[in-house]
Amino acid sequence: MTSDTLATFEEPRYRHLDAERSRYSVAMAEPLDPMDLLEIDRLLTPKELALRARLRAFVDDRIRPGIEEWFAAGRFPAELAPAFGAMGTLGMHLEGYGCPGGSTVDYGLACMEIEAGDSGLRSFMSVQGSLVMFPLHAYGSQEQKQEWLPRLAAGDAIGCFALTEPGAGSDPGAMTTAARRDGEDWILDGHKRWSTNGTVSDVGIVWAQTSEGIRGFVVPSDAPGVRFRSIDDAWSLRAAARSELFLEGVRLPATAVLPGVTGLKGPLSCLTEARFGIAFGAMGAARDCFATALRHAVTREQFGRPIGSFQLIQAKLASMAVELGKGTLLALRLGRMRDAGTAGAEHVSLGKLANARAALEIAREARSILGGDGITSAFPVIRHMLNLESVLTYEGTQEIHALIVGEALTGLRAFT
Amino acid sequence: MSFSDTLDPLQLDALLSEEELAIRDTVRRFVHEQVLPGVGGWFERGEFPEQVRSGVAGLGLLGMHLDGYGCLGANAVSYGLACLELEAGDSGLRSFVSVQGSLSMFPIHRYGSDEQKDEWLPRMATGQAIGCFGLTEPDSGSDPARMRTNARRDGSDWIVNGTKMWITNGGIADVAIVWARTDEGVRGFVIPTATPGFSTNDVHRKLSLRASVTSELVMEDVRLPAGAVLPGVTGMKGPLSCLSEARYGIVWGAMGAARACLASALEYATTRVQWGRPIAGFQLTQAKLADMAVQLQEGLLLAHHLGRMKDEGRLRPEQVSVGKLNNVRAALDIARSCRSILGASGITLEYPVMRHMNNLESVLTYEGTQEIHTLIVGHALTGLRAFE
Hints:
The structure holds 2 protein chains of 2 kinds.
Chain A lengths: L3 H6 L6 H9 L21 H28 L7 H6 L17 H14 L1 H21 L2 H13 L4 E4 L15 E5 L2 E8 L10 E8 L2 E8 L5 E5 L12 E10 L12 H35 L1 E2 L2 E2 L4 H30 L4 H25 L11 H13 L4 H13 L6
Parallel strand pairs in A: 1-4
Antiparallel strand pairs in A: 2-3, 3-7, 4-5, 6-7, 8-9
Helix pairs in contact in A: 3-5, 5-6, 5-8, 6-7, 6-8, 8-9, 8-10, 8-11, 9-10, 10-11, 10-12
Chain B lengths: L17 H28 L4 H9 L17 H14 L1 H21 L2 H12 L5 E4 L15 E5 L2 E12 L6 E8 L2 E8 L5 E5 L11 E11 L12 H35 L1 E2 L2 E2 L4 H29 L5 H25 L11 H13 L4 H13 L6
Parallel strand pairs in B: 1-4
Antiparallel strand pairs in B: 2-3, 3-7, 4-5, 6-7, 8-9
Helix pairs in contact in B: 1-3, 3-4, 3-6, 4-5, 4-6, 6-7, 6-8, 6-9, 7-8, 8-9, 8-10
């Protein structure tokens, strides 16, 4: 990944590093880019690299300047939604209805770059594209698609996804939210929790028990009986709109149901899309932590020399670089397989399992290298670290993905 | 939902050419037919049978990634695949091939005179001559530049004195590539093991790489003609470049041992019944299996990526260090986790797991310890040397 770090080294305030480096190093043939030690960028096409550069500039211009304040205030900058739309990041790999129509790898790269800014903003994008637009696109009626997809793709409307409940997390089949018929209409009652984007949403995809099994409903956020509440006491994903959703006698027309799917496979297929994005995204947060830690290690002096010249710090940096390289290779392989149609949910689980964990480990190591600076919000590391706790849990916990992969390996289900 | 191939979930086979797959399948079959039936016994008795050496040579695996002089001239990915399949048999077997091809034939091929190449390479490619590589000494391991072995001129001859340690193939070698201090810096010498003053002592009391010959080389006033020195290189970059070649093979090979362990543990876990069901149906065992699948897959992806870079001629030693650092550690983690899944069976030679686990302890240490590769990668990242 080119060179946040090297670019920074060239800034005047780091010029003294050249002298430091020559004092402690022997000449190397031609320095490798520490941010892409394995030259994984060579596996990307020029078009993909150009897309990534645009997204990286977007993060630098629109996210980095404000993120510390948004996180501190616990505020999602909803005003950025149209800019995300203009960048083509919403419903990125969907076709038609104003969607960008990119590849799965494009979508992954976008997740990676946005999450290098903040996991909360990548969460916004994941929910909008993978959890709201994807089910509309895959299972919605023509009317639903035409009504919502163009506005969602442009960022003029924001969507949320309501599956998890206070009593139904890893076991969503145990949900109690229910929809019953009243003549042609549907009446929804229930309580959803951990619904990202909820409080700023225009529409929600709500999953509910019906007499036919679990169905998805397209629920306008201003429908009578719909109430969102912000979850303010969270110490993670503070720049995302973390929300609860209460549904009390919400009356919807017959056309509000997603016609194309019945049963848990509906929401689970959405989760597969979002989890794929996380396999890439988590490596973005990890990369940002690593870049920050590396910069700190080569500039911070103790005992008369940069701490990056001590063996224990080098061991941390080397482990982080190795994990970052592996995770990026894994995400990219998954992306190529998804684009070729050869990766299923179990493959995506392997990626989510590996990369969310690796990213959190990298963030924690980076936090420790930064010492006291590592606990301040002036540096992005502890924010990423706190965010990644949510990334580890949501969209399938580590335990759930271990059991999905375990089943794929053994043919034996061990969930219950 | 299940993986079509539980040992290759991300379908890396799809990235291999027909020729690469053919070489892989040939080596896999050889290991299955000629190695696996006997290897437990060889390990137990501390043997490395001659028929295995000739079998490997017959497949053209010795110096297989070198061109000319009877060598196969295969690409780096094919060499890696061969290392992987051989090490799925036993790390000792892969070590034999690594030492022969990467540490003995490679320096002759890269730095040798035409006479040295003509004399040794064709016989080494066919296994008629076995080579070994003498760099490490009793007091000089991670810090090879402190070697004591030295060569001095006597007229146009060289006189070599010193002791080398942990030399794979030493006791069965016909020729040794020995690195020694000279007035000009470190030089490499091609020493026929029958030369007067040259002797070897095998290391017997070891619990790792038992199906492999590990020896001490003793050189007492070994007189060599001027033509014995490798003309093409002076300094530590000579032996280090050989190590880079061998380390590349280990990046792949370690994943072979890991794969064999995981295959064994998967089979065991799905058939071993406790509390009325296969232990693979319990969450704690599934978590182990899932973690191993992740590590194996990542290691294979890394090996594959480095292999393609090597075939493009752009692979750097620092990048090989990333692979060696990660993949050997991952392989050992996998082997240990498999050992625990196999329970008591895991400590026997009925199953390959503990044999691989013990072997991988050597693989973790040789060809650059974990610590050394960490510092190589650390240097590449920071520009700061932290070895001393």
